Amino acid sequence: MRFVIVTGMSGAGKSSALKMLEDAGYFCVDNLPIPLIAKFAEIGLQEPEMMNKVALGIDIRSGEDLPQLLPMLNQLSLSGIHYEILFLDCQDSVLVKRFKETRRSHPLMKEGRIEEGLASERRQLTFLKEKATYIIDTSQLLTRELKSEIDKIFVKNENYQSFFVTVLSFGFKYGIPADADLVFDVRFLPNPYYIDELKAKTGNDKEVSDYVLKFEEAGIFLEKLVDMIEFLIPKYMNEGKNQLVIAIGCTGGKHRSVTLANAFYQRLSGHAYGIKVEHRDIDRDRRYIQH
């Protein structure tokens, strides 16, 4: 029996993750009282055909029973029941925005502020995050991207490391992304904007991509960047970091940065950690021209 505990911060996507696991054939139960977990696991062992894959949603809603979870997990281990913990995390600023957009109250908010409820929740869930088998930070993830990560771990059974990389192209004239961990400037490369047949195209178009990448400096930059990031990621992981936003910028975020971000994404794809590429400003000039 595969026994998964889905937990994490309120608003980080636990309900969505449970639904995805249910669609993948897992027998899912949300907010099961902690004193019943051991009994539930025993039933699962007795009904291997019906409950060979199980997922339990456990979080701050357990209230005063939450501290009982750690000895309960130890009891499962002593009983020979192997469990995995999926911890869904998210930046506080994103969680606050999600709560305000949905007009929901944080379960620990009471009469205080959302930030106070989140801080209390983080303290109470620290022991679960430390024991987590997998940590997925959903701050930058779309629902389909979360599903892809869930499928990697629990459907395809791929080797997975709790780390997610976002490669983000942007235009300096629109500002440096506030959430960027590392920022790289590719304005040293010739600008396709000044070539009439390329001006209206983007780095997603082959003509622009071929033009940018034909310069020797572009290849050298990519090689050095890949080498540095592959060196840094294990160091970040050892320090407990679980996501990295790498921003690559040019003047307008349409040609050079998009091309290099795509090429860099392709170089890093295939690693055990999750990765995606985004183009923040690729349509800004186009929208401006249309209006």
Automatic annotation (TrEMBL):
Matching InterPro entries: P-loop_NTPase, RapZ-like, RapZ-like_N, RapZ_C
Entry binding sites for ATP: G8, M9, S10, G11, A12, G13, K14, S15
Domain RapZ-like N-terminal, residue spans: 1-157
Keywords, sorted A to Z: ATP-binding, GTP-binding, Nucleotide-binding
MF terms in GO: ATP binding; GTP binding
Stored Pfam families: PapZ_C, RapZ-like_N
Binding site for GTP: D59, I60, R61, S62
Stored Gene3D superfamilies: P-loop containing nucleotide triphosphate hydrolases
Keyword NAD: no
Presence of the UniProt keyword Acetylation in the record: no
Domain RapZ C-terminal: 165-283
Record-given protein name: UPF0042 nucleotide-binding protein
Provenance organism: Catenibacillus scindens
